Amino acid sequence: MKQQIRGFDTDEQGDWRAELKCGHFQHVRHNPPLTTRSWVQTEAGRASRIGFELDCKRCDEEAEKESPGVQDFGLPLI
Predict the structure, then answer these.
(1) Closest CA to 6 of 17, 16, 21
(2) CA-to-CA separations, 59 to 11, 12, 26, in angstroms, rounded
(3) How does strand 25-27 pair with strand 16-20?
(4) Long-range pairs for 20-26 at CB < 8 Å and ≥24 separation?
(5) Closest by alpha carbon to 39, among 24, 56, 23, 52?
(6) What is the pTM assigned to this prediction?
(7) Dihedral (C-alpha) 20, 11, 65, 6: value to the nearest 10 degrees?
(8) Other Cβ atoms within 10 Å of 15 Cβ, number
(9) What is the C-alpha to C-alpha distance for residues 62 and 21, in angstroms, rounded to an integer?
(10) Per-residue confidence of the chain (78 residues) as pLDDT tens digits?
(11) What is the pLDDT of residue 65?
């Protein structure tokens, strides 16, 4: 589920994470060559992403729990 970024902070290890409108957090690491997010390294870069939407995995998981799929009823998946 897409959620807007409303701010940033760091976790216990000093990695940047985005605070989403829903209240959840998502890491936004700059870890080249796997993930290139050089914007996260500067205050101006992070400020430029306020309002940008990220997919919130926790919201997706919560929505899935509220709307059970076929496998939740013990039926085989085809």
Answers:
(1) 21
(2) 20, 23, 11
(3) antiparallel
(4) 20/54, 20/56, 22/56, 22/58, 22/59, 24/56, 24/58, 24/59, 26/54, 26/56, 26/57
(5) 52
(6) 0.76
(7) 0
(8) 13
(9) 15
(10) 999 999 999 999 999 999 999 999 999 999 888 889 999 999 999 999 999 999 999 999 998 887 765 555 555 555
(11) 83
The residue extents of the domains of the chain are 2-61
Q: At 14, which amino acid appears? A: G
Name the amino acid, one letter, at 4. Q
Positive or negative: CA dihedral 28, 26, 52, 64? positive
Distance CA 39, CA 28 (A): 10
| Token reading at 68 | 């059970």
CA separation for the pair 30, 38 (Å, rounded): 6
The pLDDT assigned to 64 comes to 84
Listed in sequence order, the DSSP H helices in the chain are 43-47, 57-66
